[in-house]
Amino acid sequence: MVERPMDRDSKEIWEAIRAAVESGREDDVVELKSEWYNLSNRSGEAEFLKDVCAMANDLQGPGDVRYIVCGVLDADQCPDRTDAADYVKGVQTGPVNKLNERISQSVKTHMEPYINVRYIEVQHPNIDAILGVLEIRGWSRGWDDRPYVIKEGIHRLRKSQIYVRRSAGVSEPASWREIRLLVEHSQEKQIERLKQEIKDLGEAHKEELQNAEVEWRRDTAKKEQSYKKEITKLERQIADMEQDYLKTINLLQNDKDKLAAERERFKELARSLSRLLWRRSEADRSTLCTCFRRYGMEDWLKAWCQGDVEH
C-alpha cells in the first residue's frame, strides 16, 4: 500500500505513535482514545484535563513528550489489526488554531504549573482518516515542574487533586505515596540541576578569571611599553636640557670673561683719566672724589693717586 506524503512535523509524530496505533497497545508514551473530547461540556473538559494531568505527571525530563491519540480503537475494542480502516475511525477536522486556543485556556485555568499542550491533526498514511493528536511536552527550562495539580475544580475534578497513570490508559488520583515520590523526584532533579549550575558557574568564573588574568597581563605589558617610551622621551628631554644648560653656562662664562676684560679696560681708562684730572686743578680733584664716592670707587682713587687723596 502506497503511503501518503506527510509534512516533517506530522511524520515525526507518526513515527512516535505508529507502533501503538497499529498494535492497539498503549505504552508509556502513547495513550489511545476512540474519539475526541467534548470540550463544550464540563464533563468532557474534566475528562480531558484529568488525562492531560496524568500524562504530564508521567513525563521524565526536559523535552520529554507524551501523546494522546484520538480516533483510534485499542486492541480490546478491535483485536483484528489487519485493516487500518477497521480500527482507525479518525476525528472530525476543524480550525486547529482555534482549538489550540481553547485547549490552552482550559489548561491555564484549571492546572498548575502550566504545561505545554498542543493539538495536531495527523493524516493517516494509508487510509483517508485524520488522527487528533495531543502533544504534551515536558518543561524546557531545566526544572522538574511536577507534580501537576488541578488548580480549579470542574465537574468531578476537585481542586488540588493530582492525577497519575496507574497503567496504560488509566488515569486516577495519586496516592500520598505517589505524590511523595513525585515531589522527591522533582526535588532530586532540582538539586542535580542546581549542582550542575553551580559547577557550570564555577567553570565559567574560572574561565573568566583566566581570561581576566590574560587580559590584565596584556594590558600591563602595553602599559609597560608605553611607560618605557615615556621614560625614554623624558630621558632625551633631560639630556637636551643638560646640553642647553651646559651651553648656557659656557655662554655665561664667556660673558664673565668678557666682562672681566672690559672691567680691566675700564679701570685702566678711569685710572688714566683720574690721574690727568687730579693734576689739573683743585676743583677737578673735588669733583673727582665726589664722583668716585658716589659709585663706591674711592679705593680705586686712593690706589691710583696714593698720597694725594684727602682722607
Question: How many E-type strands?
Answer: 8
- Helix segment tally: 7
The share of residues in extended strands comes to: 5-15%
Distance between the termini: 153 Å
The CATH level-2 architecture of the largest domain is identified as 2-Layer Sandwich
CATH class designation of the largest domain: Alpha Beta
Biggest sheet details: 4 strands, mixed
Helix amount, in percent? Answer: 55-70%
Spatial order of the strands forming the largest sheet = 1-2-5-4
Q: Which structural category do the helix and sheet elements fall into?
A: alpha+beta
Assembly state of the chains shown: single chain
Q: What letter string, H or E per element, gives the SSE order?
A: HEHEHHEEEEEEHHH
Which radius of gyration do the C-alpha atoms yield?
Answer: 55 Å
